[in-house]
């Protein structure tokens, strides 16, 4: 899973025993060489799906990390593009990754639960960040996103179908979450990262409570499971006009 240029086991251990913010500051220089980075195939599929409803004017990448979502927003947005993250280390890598982006791109250090914007965006995207939020934090998070979107704006993010109980992936994720719960019960500060806590039914309900109109769009690039359900969907939450 990790190449020779990725983090060592010791580096991952130090990260896991840190806070979320400090952990990602430490991991940032090697983050793009880990399996934690959202694959390009997912980014391209989301961009292709959103192109059918665009173009947009101003876009925000929520919890942008090292800037993987930047290419999606620059393809879709005619105006400004902003990345927001609370890790200074991740933002530093993002700035270095796109040095020629110019004034059209801005990077802002802030907590997604207290965004420093007014209704300034037509599109908000996020990739692979929701495991860092506990279920009880979703109402506040989605209310924040609703507040920074202009009327008619969209909040979009991909969701992969969970693995079946009979597959190794199911037990791997179950084991990871169990280890993290034990770690957080015994060690401070906590490191919030749970793969199985972000459940689509709960997410849709909380988005609607925050005032969004929610649609689920299959991402056909990833095919369907044996029961006919999509392997991947894009959640599109629209702020009413």
Automatic annotation (TrEMBL):
<dbReference type="InterPro" id="IPR050508">
    <property type="entry name" value="Methyltransf_Superfamily"/>
</dbReference>
<keyword id="KW-0489">Methyltransferase</keyword>
<dbReference type="GO" id="GO:0032259">
    <property type="term" value="P:methylation"/>
</dbReference>
<dbReference type="InterPro" id="IPR041698">
    <property type="entry name" value="Methyltransf_25"/>
</dbReference>
<feature type="domain" description="Methyltransferase">
    <location>
        <begin position="60"/>
        <end position="153"/>
    </location>
</feature>
<protein>
    <submittedName>
        <fullName>Class I SAM-dependent methyltransferase</fullName>
        <ecNumber>2.1.1.-</ecNumber>
    </submittedName>
</protein>
<dbReference type="GO" id="GO:0008168">
    <property type="term" value="F:methyltransferase activity"/>
</dbReference>
<dbReference type="InterPro" id="IPR029063">
    <property type="entry name" value="SAM-dependent_MTases_sf"/>
</dbReference>
<keyword id="KW-0808">Transferase</keyword>
<dbReference type="Pfam" id="PF13649">
    <property type="entry name" value="Methyltransf_25"/>
</dbReference>
């Amino acid at each position: 899973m990790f190449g020779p240029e990725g983090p060592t086991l010791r580096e991952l251990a130090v990260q896991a025993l840190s806070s979320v913010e400090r952990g990602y500051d430490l991991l940032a220089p090697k983050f793009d060489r880990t399996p934690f980075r959202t694959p390009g195939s997912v980014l391209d599929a989301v961009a292709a799906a959103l192109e059918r409803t665009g173009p947009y004017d101003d876009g925000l990448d929520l919890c942008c990390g090292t800037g993987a979502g930047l290419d999606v927003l620059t393809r879709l947005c005619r105006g400004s593009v902003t990345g927001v993250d609370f890790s200074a280390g991740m933002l530093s890598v993002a700035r270095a990754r796109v040095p020629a982006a110019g004034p059209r791109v801005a990077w802002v250090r802030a907590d997604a639960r207290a965004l420093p914007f007014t209704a300034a965006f037509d599109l908000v995207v996020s990739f692979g960040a929701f495991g860092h939020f506990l279920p009880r934090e979703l109402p506040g998070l989605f209310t924040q996103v609703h507040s920074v979107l202009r009327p008619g704006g969209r909040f979009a993010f991909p969701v992969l179908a969970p693995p079946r109980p009979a597959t190794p992936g199911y037990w791997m994720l179950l084991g990871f979450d169990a280890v993290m719960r034990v770690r957080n019960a015994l060690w401070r500060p906590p490191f919030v990262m749970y793969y199985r806590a972000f459940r689509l039914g709960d997410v849709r309900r909380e988005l609607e409570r925050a005032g969004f109109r929610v649609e689920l769009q299959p991402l056909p690039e990833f095919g369907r499971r044996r029961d006919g359900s999509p392997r991947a969907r894009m959640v599109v939450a629209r702020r009413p006009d």
